[in-house]
Fold:
Amino acid sequence: MAGRLAGKVAVITGSGTGIGQAIAIRYASEGATVVVNYLEHPEQADETKARAEAAGGKAITIQGDVSKIADTNRLIDQTWQQLGRCDILVNNAGIEIGANFWDITEADYDRVLDVNLKGAFFLTQAFVRRLRDAKRPGRVINMSSVHEDMVFPHFPTYCAAKGGMRMLMRDLAVELGPLGITVNNIAPGAISTPINARMMANPTELNALLANIPLGRMGTVDDVAGLALFLASDDGAYVTGSTYVIDGGLMRNYHEQ
Structure:
């Protein structure tokens, strides 16, 4: 099948729902074979797989907890075993746990940092090792957040993880550039996804947020998927070391109530 990602293989973590699912479907529609990674809900991964195949691509599902190094290694190893290559990695899996700073537990800290930062770190390492050995180029796209730069009171673990992802991306862009591997972040603002369901169900919170967004709406998962396609395609070949903010202008206009 022709397309901007024809012949490419892409691993997208946490792609059973939300932004990850939309990216998998968009990549498949452009000719990629996508690896749908999930943690606990195989039925969601199967839905993404079916929608990716309906869009014209190929897809497989692989279970794995990105916070466990054995699972991240297995995810990349199985991709190579089943598909013979891996060209694009989208570190999309992420969680947030809200609490006052003085109430955060060690367990909550570990969970958020392990999924959002440690997972991306070691999955990228496994991805890069195989590319280095095969002498192939590649693309790393991290799903960061506007909170890699913008404060988010009561979510300091999330901010710490995304801030770490910002600097990790910059560092790896320099270190991996000579291997032909680009590394970039996508930093979504308020996107209509399951992670924001509670806020979207509260009209007071939702209206306060929308008042801070110059474009006057929340983003869609398809908005983000289009940007992820650009970074994975030939159009994004000379882009590395950058964060692409996609937030309707929120960061430029935001203030705490």
About this structure: The longest helix spans residues 106-134. Residues 9-248 form a domain with the Rossmann fold fold (CATH 3.40.50.720). The chain has one domain: 9-248. The CA atoms of residues 47 and 69 lie 26 Å apart.
